[in-house]
Amino acid sequence: MENIQNWDVHLEVTDAPIDFASGHVDVALRYGNGQYPFASAERIMNEIVSPVCSPECREKMGGLHLVGELAKCQLIHEIGMTTTWERWFAMMQLPCPGMRGPGYSHGSMSIEAAVRGAGVALGRSVLVAEDLTAGRLISLFPEAKLEVEWGYDLAYRVGNQEHPKVSLFRSWIAQEVREFMQSIS
């Protein structure tokens, strides 16, 4: 089997539509709802969110041992995220304290704010895994996880699923995802 390390890989981080017609893109990894114009996609990893904060923030807030105590915390918001604090509080059958606290346009920014002690973020499992392992963040209520409709998808040109590059990349990324998921369990 061809070694993926011998490939010429170009990485571009963008929310722009994927242009498979140009011939310059074989596969794309997207965070989304699985629907991409002119592309086939398969979900490679679901996303789960749950409250996270820094150890210092937890201590400052008196330990945060009960879910209801989040109502007194500064909540960090990811602007544009479809899964919001409102949905999380609804899942917990609690009233949402409203949109108070800072909002950030990217998940990585909201996670960084939580690491710095700015409040409690609704952390996306993939984005917070390393910070949880390193102890920079704490999962406040590990049992209170909400699976969201968005996740990580492998997208490719319609009809190209059996192309050798796509097949090899699909196998490689599936193995990487399995290893990642084992490392965070």
From TrEMBL:
Matching InterPro entries: LysR-type_TF_proteobact-type, LysR_subst-bd
Organism superkingdom: Bacteria
The record places domain LysR substrate-binding at 7-176
State the Gene Ontology terms under molecular function: DNA-binding transcription factor activity; sequence-specific DNA binding
* BP GO terms, sorted: DNA-templated transcription
Its family remark reads: Belongs to the LysR transcriptional regulatory family.
Q: What is this protein called?
A: LysR substrate binding domain-containing protein
Q: Which organism is it from?
A: Sinorhizobium americanum
